[in-house]
Amino acid sequence: MKRTLLLTGATGYIGRRLAQGLSASWNVLRASRTAAGEGAVDLNLADPDSIRRTFDSAAPAAVVHAGAEADPDACERDPERAKRVNVDAVKVLAGLCGVSGARLVHFSTDLVFDGERGWYREDDAPNPLGVYARGKLESEEAALVRAPGAAVLRVSTCYGRPLGGRPGYVDTMHAKLSRGEPVSGFVDQWRTSTFADQLPEVVTKILADEDLDGVYHWGGSERMTRFESSVLFARVFGFDENLVHPGRAVDMKFASPRPRDSSLDSSKLAASLGIAPMTYESGFKALKGSFK
Ligand SMILES: NC(=O)c1ccc[n+]([C@@H]2O[C@H](COP(=O)([O-])OP(=O)(O)OC[C@H]3O[C@@H](n4cnc5c(N)ncnc54)[C@H](OP(=O)(O)O)[C@@H]3O)[C@@H](O)[C@H]2O)c1
Question: How many domains is the chain built from?
Fold first, then answer.
């Protein structure tokens, strides 16, 4: 019989594909405020009682925490809510895992780094720039201290199809380029974007190996600006590359500061799991069929 896994953020961009992918090996309970249908459970991360109730009735053997206020600008505008949802909730959830012995896999972000250097490894010192990033770093510490054996998975900006949720940048770019409309990409921010469809396999393998505790990075194998990856996207999909225009992040008025180069070195986890991080080209090619 499959063991029970509580998946938070199950209606989110990452959670949707985890809900599908993890169900091959786990009895997945899909938790969020709006999860519906079979296997859905109600969870409000801003309410500690809701977390306790959901956890107690699920009695999970493992928890994958992909629920969060994941918009850095929203966190900057409402730091109190960001703290409740992104930090306090993890303290409660990780504490429950620690007491019950449930294995915790907690999602975090490349934004814990200040981006002054790039190609960060797990033992590099974080230096978060904004409310969201500071909260995520605090949540990492809470997960590791309160839930012994927990794994923290830092991912870069993810790309893939939305699976019924909000469209990501790949869908927006495809829609515009296919109509012959211009798109713009920053030339002054470097990322190792994570191919989102790899995450179910990565998380399944982490869950299968209890020795994989601590912090791990999972991005792509290459570091690119959004401008460079958008030109490549246009080329792979057969759109006019000249529709991609250079833009500058420093000219934008984001509420939350963004690191210049938060590229992640994923070699430690790649070696442990025997999975290779994707190049942008292989990721875009893998998505091609899904747009037909
Ligand atoms: N996507 C990326 O590029 C990326 C990059 C780096 C790190 N991450 C991290 O990966 C994780 C997942 O991100 P994502 O992009 O999938 O986020 P997302 O698409 O914004 O989804 C967020 C999820 O969290 C749930 N949620 C938000 N507030 C909640 C609350 N108060 N109570 C219960 N559930 C709540 C939402 O569900 P309801 O609205 O249905 O409640 C939704 O399922 C996050 O920890 C994020 O920080 C993501």
Answer: 2
Q: pLDDT value at position 166?
A: 85
Q: CA-CA distance, 269 to 68, in Å (whole number)?
A: 23
**Is the separation of the CB atoms in 207 and 105 below 8 Å?**
yes
- Closest atom, ligand 1, to C-alpha of 85: 31
| Distance in angstroms between the alpha carbons of the first and the last residue of the chain | 38
Pocket of ligand 1 (CB under 6 A): 9-15, 32-34, 43-46, 66-70, 85, 107, 109, 136, 155, 157-158
Query: Which segments in the chain show pLDDT lower than 70?
Result: none
Same domain, 257 and 120: no
State the closest ligand 1 atom to the C-alpha of 110, by its place in the atom list counted from 1.
Answer: 6
Alpha helices in the chain (DSSP H): 13-22, 48-58, 72-77, 79-82, 89-100, 131-146, 169-178, 199-208, 226-237, 267-273, 280-288
Distance 12 CA to ligand 1 centre (A): 5
Q: How far apart are CA 107 and CA 217, in angstroms?
A: 10
What is the distance in A from the centroid of ligand 1 to the CA of 179? 30
Residue having the nearest C-alpha atom to atom 23 of ligand 1: 9
Residue nearest to ligand 1 atom 36, measured at CA: 9
Residues 146 and 92 in one domain: yes
Residue numbers of the domain that contains 227: 167-192+222-291
CA of 10 to the centre of ligand 1 (A): 8
What ligand 1 atom has the least distance to the C-alpha of 86?
A: 45
Instruction: Please tell me the predicted confidence (pLDDT) of residue 165.
Output: 85
Domain holding 260: CATH number? Answer: 3.90.25.10
User: Within 13 Å, how many C-alpha atoms sit on residue 98's CB side?
Assistant: 13
Please tell me the pTM assigned to this model: 0.97
